[in-house]
Amino acid sequence: MAGSGAATVPRNFRLLDELDRGEKGSADGTVSYGLADPSDISLTNWNGMIVGPPGTPFDGRLYTLAITCGDNYPIAPPLVRFVSKVSLSCVNASTGAVEPRSFRPLGQWSREYTIETVLAELRREMCQPNNRKLPQPAEGSSF
Asked: Is residue 62 within 8 Å of 51, Cβ to Cβ?
């Protein structure tokens, strides 16, 4: 048998594991995620949620995201888009798409990253000084 690396987990096994973890929520309750449609056997379309960090302009708000895990996930990053309007330096102001060129976890993707990694890093991004200064849209507005 050729190759010396660890066995590669098939896409669906990986996503089923992520689904199990996502439904339980993060340990601190700040992010959660799950399938957009529980009957989606392709495990492609997901919803994510981020609780705005305290002491920031995002405090007390819940942000909803749409996440698409393509056929090449986890080798390729998911497509991530905010459904809730938000002003962040890494988010396209017109579409809500998280832009890989300005968000390291997507732009420098590693197959070890997960949906939870992306959501947690986006929450950390909300705490960055440049994003704390951005005026935020009215609560409850959507792209």
From this structure: yes
Largest CA distance in the chain: 58
Adjacent-strand bridge partners of 82? 65
pTM of the model: 0.91
Angle at 63 between CA 122 and CA 13, to 5 degrees: 65
What are the tens digits of pLDDT across the range 61-114? 999 999 999 999 999 999 999 999 999 999 999 999 999 999 999 999 999 999
CB 62 within 8 A of CB 84: yes
pLDDT digits (tens, 9 = 90+) for 7-29: 677 899 999 999 998 877 666 88
- Domain-wise residue ranges, the chain: 11-132
Q: CA angle, corner 129, sides to 127 and 134, nearest 5? A: 90
* CATH superfamily name and code, 11-132: Ubiquitin Conjugating Enzyme (3.10.110.10)
